[in-house]
Design brief:
Residues 13-141 form the UspA domain. It contains 4 helices and 6 strands, in the order E-E-H-E-H-E-H-E-H-E. It has helices at 22-35, 53-72, 87-98, 125-133; strands at 3-4, 10-18, 41-49, 78-84, 102-106, 137-141. The longest helix is centred in the middle third of the chain and has 20 residues, at 53-72.
């Protein structure tokens, strides 16, 4: 689904998952680099909380920082959305609501875990669930320095 921009050109939509983590900031920067120049794309920064007031305040600040980061990186058309619920479900719901074909997320979010040397150590549960469900294209931003290295 696309929408008409004020200039009458078609606009694609991209949802960016925001949780305040370094990988989420990298995801936003990568989204701005790939999709952000010109008015061809609407970048939608989305945060999801469990519904607690303190969590909502922190995520609102993360959304504001992300929107500034996107603007500083040259993204011209952005908006934001705060939601409550399961992160993977809500990112997919936001993508459907905004008509986004792509979701951009960090490989691992704020709730990082340490696992063995299998692939689960390289991506977080939200990223894995989005990839497993295959309902939208998913662009994964990865910070190599934040990934645990297998024991030698």
């Amino acid at each position: 689904m696309s929408a008409e921009t004020p200039s009458g050109t078609s606009e694609a939509r991209v949802v960016i998952g925001v949780d305040g983590s370094l990988n989420a900031r990298l995801a936003a920067l990568r989204a701005a680099a790939v999709f952000g120049s010109g008015a061809r794309y609407l970048l939608v920064a989305v945060t999801v909380t469990g519904g607690f007031a303190s969590e909502r305040r922190a995520q609102q600040k993360a959304l504001e920082r992300t929107q500034r980061l996107l603007a500083d990186a040259g993204a011209t058309t952005t908006t934001r959305s705060a939601r409550d619920g399961d992160p993977a479900d809500e990112l997919l719901a936001a993508a459907a609501e905004f008509g986004a074909t792509t979701i951009v997320v960090g490989a691992r979010g704020a709730e990082m875990f340490i696992a063995g040397s299998d692939d689960s150590a390289r991506i977080g549960s939200v990223c894995k669930r989005l990839l497993d469900r295959r309902e939208r294209e998913v662009l994964v931003a990865h910070n190599p320095s934040a990934t645990p290295q297998p024991a030698r």
